[in-house]
């Protein structure tokens, strides 16, 4: 049998077990064209069938289409059956799972398919009552005391994507999976895929549907992060859900906390899997907040806040007359500094017993070193973790954690994952307090800088079409490390993958320079990008900005070499 004949046979076998008429139809068209010798169709089949979408610590995430290297009902059924086998192996008859889903295409279908397969495997299964934010699912894992949680979402990825994120209960306290659980689950999924068609998997409708009391409980617990609010102070705020599921839950939290209810960007308020007003539904992306800024100008607002489509990330923009739009989005590091300072200040000002252990401020290895400076300023511990909240959430004694990619954990006793809704409630409460004290958000940033120094951070995302290109660039830098950057001598070139004291082992490069600048370079874990993180310290805001611009130019030249 030729390679093409084997490929066509695999594709026909896939169609035979696929319950989705849309993916069956588009795969059947590919098979017809490939059978007629169409080179493009044959190449597309190879892309879909030569490899399998890998299950890892981020679960599954990929483009919606037919084939084992895409997200679809066959792949999700195999993943659910594999995870069910893992849970039964670990917990026996006590195995249990809660499943949530957002507003992306097929999210509900994938969730309901999973529920039937889990129930059919003998796992006690609870499905959330409707589409809800990822933080509600993360909360439910602990609140319902189940063995695991599954969230069907692709978070801030493009509209054509979906994903399957897994959390563990018990000793993992509702955090996302980490090794070795990921490889153990992957092995079970591989066994299911090799064992026959998904049509043979046992299914059952004997699963429970969680009621609204779960959402009420999350809202009450999350509203508590606002704390006591100043009286007689109002704040004009604009909010965008970015066509996701954040508004309904976030607005309930704001109301329960007594916070001012923001003006919602109407065109982006309701879930819409097509994301019609944004080319990339990520608040970090250029243009993503344009409608929010337009609304803020019309409303005379003082603050913009945003969630990404599944509401686990949080973004802030503030008035700034120096930019054309009149608004500037804060970096994730700036928001992390503001939230981290508030957490540290509150911890330091709270009376504790003699045996109290100071709380820990945690950030990912690529986040700004400023959080460590804050921790030292207040006599707290600072933890540096691998990228991702699966690691940040596990920092012992965690008080506050963040990563520069707009992820914040302000309430670790409630949710062990980044939570854009609790971060929004906490930030609004702080903004009210700063306003009561006569300060804006920008003023608060300056006040912190006056205490600990001026930090500035930036990022370069080098998108690639061939994932191997990321490895080639990393290998070239390892073989030929730069000697200077932006006119400053390189004092340290560290490769944590080879083991560096004080740093977690990771596929990342760290470059330190004589003027105190830091560069971190790593392949993205969820997107076809090489990501570069830039951090500088300056004697003033202007000095720091100039250093950052020079370092950015130097790195772009280095990567293009």
From TrEMBL:
InterPro entries per the UniProt record, alphabetical: A-D-PHexomutase_a/b/a-I, A-D-PHexomutase_a/b/a-I/II/III, A-D-PHexomutase_a/b/a-II, A-D-PHexomutase_a/b/a-III, A-D-PHexomutase_C, A-D-PHexomutase_C_sf, A-D-PHexomutase_CS, Alpha-D-phosphohexomutase_SF
Similarity annotation: Belongs to the phosphohexose mutase family.
Species name: Gryllotalpicola koreensis
Cofactor(s) needed for function: Mg(2+)
Signal peptide start and end residues: none
Domain Alpha-D-phosphohexomutase alpha/beta/alpha: 53-191, 218-317, 332-446
Keywords annotated in UniProt: Isomerase, Magnesium, Metal-binding, Phosphoprotein
Transmembrane segments: none
Protein name per its UniProtKB record: Phospho-sugar mutase
Keyword Isomerase: yes
């Amino acid at each position: 049998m030729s390679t093409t004949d084997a490929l066509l046979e695999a594709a026909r076998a896939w169609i035979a077990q696929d319950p989705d008429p849309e993916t069956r139809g588009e795969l059947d068209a590919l098979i017809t064209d490939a059978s007629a010798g169409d080179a493009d169709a044959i190449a597309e089949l190879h892309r879909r069938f030569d490899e399998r979408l890998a299950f890892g610590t981020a679960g599954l995430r990929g483009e919606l289409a037919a084939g084992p290297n895409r997200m679809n009902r066959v792949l999700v059924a195999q993943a659910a059956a594999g995870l069910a086998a893992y849970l039964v192996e670990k917990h026996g008859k006590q195995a249990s799972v809660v499943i949530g889903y957002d507003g992306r295409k097929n999210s509900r279908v994938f969730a309901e398919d999973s529920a039937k397969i889990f129930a059919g495997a003998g796992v006690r299964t609870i499905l959330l009552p409707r589409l809800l934010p990822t933080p509600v699912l993360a909360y439910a894992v602990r609140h319902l005391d189940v063995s695991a949680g599954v969230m069907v979402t692709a978070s801030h990825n493009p509209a054509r994507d979906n994903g399957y994120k897994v959390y563990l209960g018990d000793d993992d306290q509702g955090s996302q999976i980490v090794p070795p659980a990921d490889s153990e689950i992957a092995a079970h999924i591989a066994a299911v895929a090799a064992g026959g068609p998904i049509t043979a998997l046992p299914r059952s409708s004997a699963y429970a549907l969680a009621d609204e009391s779960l959402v009420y409980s999350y809202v009450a617990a999350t509203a508590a992060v606002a704390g006591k609010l100043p009286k007689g102070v109002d704040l004009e705020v604009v909010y965008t859900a970015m066509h996701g599921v954040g508004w309904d839950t976030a607005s309930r939290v704001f109301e329960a906390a007594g916070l001012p209810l923001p003006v919602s960007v109407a065109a982006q308020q309701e879930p819409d899997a097509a994301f019609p007003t944004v080319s990339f539904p990520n608040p970090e992306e250029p243009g993503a907040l344009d409608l929010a800024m337009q609304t803020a100008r019309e409303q005379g607002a003082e603050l913009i806040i945003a969630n990404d489509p599944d509401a686990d990330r949080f973004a802030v923009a503030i008035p700034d007359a120096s930019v054309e739009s009149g608004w500037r989005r804060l970096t994730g590091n700036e928001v992390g500094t503001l939230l981290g300072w508030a957490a540290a200040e509150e911890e330091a000002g709270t009376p504790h017993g003699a045996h109290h252990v100071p709380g820990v401020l945690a950030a990912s290895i690529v986040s700004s070193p400023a959080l460590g400076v804050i921790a030292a300023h207040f006599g707290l511990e600072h933890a540096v973790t691998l990228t991702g909240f699966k690691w940040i959430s596990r920092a012992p004694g965690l008080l506050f954690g963040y990563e520069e990619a707009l992820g914040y954990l302000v309430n670790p006793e409630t949710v062990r994952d980044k939570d854009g809704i609790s971060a929004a409630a906490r930030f609004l409460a702080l903004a009210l307090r700063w306003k009561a004290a006569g300060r804006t958000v920008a003023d608060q940033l300056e006040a912190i800088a006056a205490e600990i120094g001026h930090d500035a951070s930036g990022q370069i995302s080098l998108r690639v079409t061939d994932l191997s290109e990321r490895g080639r660039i990393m290998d070239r830098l390892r073989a030929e490390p730069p000697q200077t950057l932006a006119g400053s001598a390189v004092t340290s070139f560290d490769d944590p993958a080879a083991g560096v004291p004080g740093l977690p082992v990771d596929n990342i490069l760290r470059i330190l320079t004589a003027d105190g600048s830091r560069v971190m370079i790593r392949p993205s874990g969820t997107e076809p990008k090489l990501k570069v993180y830039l951090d500088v310290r300056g004697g003033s805001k202007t000095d720091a900005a100039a250093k950052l611009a020079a370092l950015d130019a130097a790195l772009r030249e280095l990567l293009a070499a």
